[in-house]
Amino acid sequence: MLSDMHSKELVCFRLKNNNMAGIDKTYIDGKEYPLYRQWWIDNYDKMKKEIGDYIWLYTFSSFYPNEPEEFTPEFLLNNTQDLKKYKNVNDFPIWNTSEKVDKWLIKNCEIQSFRNRMLEVYSHEWVGFKGQKWIPKPKLKPKCCK
To answer: What is the helix (H) or strand (E) element at residue 75, kind and residue range?
Structure first.
């Protein structure tokens, strides 16, 4: 269940042609941050190639005012103050994504907390889940015996 704060920030409007807006922010805890950070490093080139840019992580703001012109895997591998800063932080946003990026993430991000978040926000029939084997089957009501 989402907290009141998350519910207020959640964006999930039906748009023309039955499309949905992006989920807004994905929240994680500090213990999960190294996993998301490493996923970002490992998928940087694929992000740039397939969606045209990298996904901005909110934790990048921890490098201000010494942030680079562009964040790269090399920068993150050589600069780790974000890991220390977010290590013990609970419930902070990692990214804010559009529906287009959500669809890409669903195909490319195997982090369980992210997948759980997608299942909370989008219905099982959402087009972005099409062809994904990790989506649980909707529970059908048993037929009554006469």
So the answer is: helix 73-78
Give the CA distances from residue 2 to residues 27, 30, 69, 116, in Å, rounded to whole numbers and listed in that order: 10, 18, 35, 12
DSSP string, 110-143: --HHHHHHHHHHS-TT-GGGTT-TTSPPPPPPPP
Q: CA-CA distance, 110 to 130, in Å (whole number)?
A: 16
* Of 87, 85, 82, 84, the residue nearest 29 (C-alpha): 87
Place of tokens 């600069």: 79
Confidence of residue 131 (pLDDT cuts 50, 70, 90): confident
3-state secondary structure of 14: strand
pTM of the full structure: 0.76
